[in-house]
Amino acid sequence: MKKILLSLFLCIFSISPTFAIEDNVQINLQQALDIAVEKNIDLRSEKMNIDIAKNRIKSANRLQNPEFNMFYNIGSAGRSEPQQLGFTELIEIGKRGARKNLAKSNLELQSENLRFAKFNLKMDVRVAYINLVAEKSVLDTMQQQEKLQEQLLNIVKKKVHSGKAPEIDELQAEIALNQLRTQVNTAKISARNALVNFNKVINPGEESNYDTRDKIFAEENNFDELLTPSPEDGMPDFDEIKEHALEHRYDIKIAKQQIDVAKRRLQVVSRQRIPDIEITGGYLYQSKAQTDERFKSGAFAGANIVNLPIFYTFKPEIQNAQLELQQTELKYISTVNKALKDVDAAYAKFLTARDNLNCYEKNILTSSEKLIENSIKSYESGKTDLTALIVMKQSYKSIIVGYTYALAEYYNSWTNFLREVNDESFDLYDDKDAL
Q1: Whether 46 contacts 231, CB under 8 Å
Q2: In this predicted model, what pLDDT tens digit does every residue of 193-235 receive, in sequence order?
Q3: E strands, 261-374, in order
């Protein structure tokens, strides 16, 4: 039984899950954004709301359909009274224009919602793209560390066989290698899940699957390729960012448009109090079988005033419409206040991510690379033991992975900053002295 468990344990370390990303269509970030805007199923569904809103304008501007009337006398009345054919048309007073204006305001609201949905989709694609590249970068780092650990194991074996190191060093190096292989397997699954999420965000609804053209974060990071400013660039004053956000944020525009919709709705409800006019017309006639010769056939016309607000004045509907208007006004104030807080938080987060990335690139990476090189040489020369070297390698691996996630955090914090200012073309000042 122990042998079976040992065999299964070794299989876990030796067999690693694989996923084929080579068959996927490789695209860069800009292509991913374009494909998502063109093919995303949810966005295509959102676009249909525009056509629905346009049709509602036509419906709101409709004329009331006429009624056709026929009044036919039978029995004794049929021999003396005339027969009647006619129609009735209801003419609304002051209501069609109000309904049409409300429908137009709703169309503008739907247009803002569509622009907001498109913008959010682009931001989601950026995040999914960066996260996939980050997970691939971590996987690449882990695989490189696995190769280095294999080389270290070979060095240890040679030292053990030559009697320069105890046998326990070889066992310790093998355990470290097997542990690293489990981490490689985990990194592969994380990269695969990130790939699935990337396609989930694009959501093109077709057979093709997409993959990032960037396999890993390059040593010389191409920030332009990932549509992100360099961490060396300066930042404008926060007051300017705040004003920019208040001008561009879609949620503020939507909240403002909702006020207009509420005003239009109040107008529609208030005009229900205006009476309508009902026009009636037709033709009266007697057949030859009828006996009253005094009657002469001819047309008739009439008019009625209907929907007089006597018993019911639509007061509850008007009060509700007024309350809804007050709600939208409060919502607008709340949206502005929250927007400024969100922009402030995103701005601070981006500055922190930029500082952390600069710290990694200028201080931590260079020092850790020299440290690991010296540690390997010290072990080979017998100046340090294997335990110290393994601890140093694990520390170096953590630094490299931490740097990868610092890069991802920098890219994503920039995307989050764009999401809060609601402007994907926002430009930083090219002022390195501002750092």
Answers
A1: no
A2: 999 999 999 999 777 789 998 777 765 567 888 888 888 887 7
A3: 276-285, 298-306
200 is written with which tokens?
């989930």
pLDDT tens digits, 321-355 = 999 999 999 999 999 999 999 999 999 999 999 99
Query: How many C-beta atoms surround the C-beta of residue 421 within 10 A?
Result: 21
Please give the CATH architecture assigned to the domain spanning 25-434: Up-down Bundle (1.20)
Identify the bridge partners of residue 282 per DSSP, sorted by sequence position: 86, 300
Q: What is the mean pLDDT of the chain?
A: 84
Contact 18, 188 (CB under 8 A): yes
Instruction: Decide if 191 contacts 211 (C-beta within 8 A).
Output: no
Determine the Cα–Cα distance for residues 381 and 300; give it in Å rounded to an integer.
119
Report which of 248, 213, 233, 227 is spatially closest to residue 136, judged by C-alpha positions: 213
| 411: its two tokens | 């890219």
Chain segment 365-374, per-residue pLDDT in tens:
666 666 667 6
Report the C-alpha dihedral over residues 234, 238, 243, 244, rounded to 10 degrees.
Answer: 30
Return all residues near 418 (Cβ < 8 A) that are at least 6 apart.
123, 126, 424, 426
- Which residues is 134 bridged to in the sheet? none
Beta-ladder partners of 68: 87
**CB neighbour list of residue 201: distance below 8 Å, 6 or more residues apart:** 36, 121, 124, 125, 127, 128
Query: What pLDDT shows up at residue 286?
Result: 76
The amino acid present at 149, given as its one-letter code, is: Q
Q: Cβ(254)–Cβ(332) under 8 Å?
A: no
* Domains of the chain by residue range: 25-434
The whole-angstrom separation of Cα 179 and Cα 40 is 41
Reported as a pLDDT band with limits 50, 70 and 90, residue 5 is very low
Say whether 275 sits in a helix, a strand or coil: coil
Look up residue 364 and give its DSSP letter.
I
Does residue 135 contact residue 217 with C-beta atoms inside 8 Å?
no
Reply yes or no on whether the pLDDT at 422 is more than 50: yes
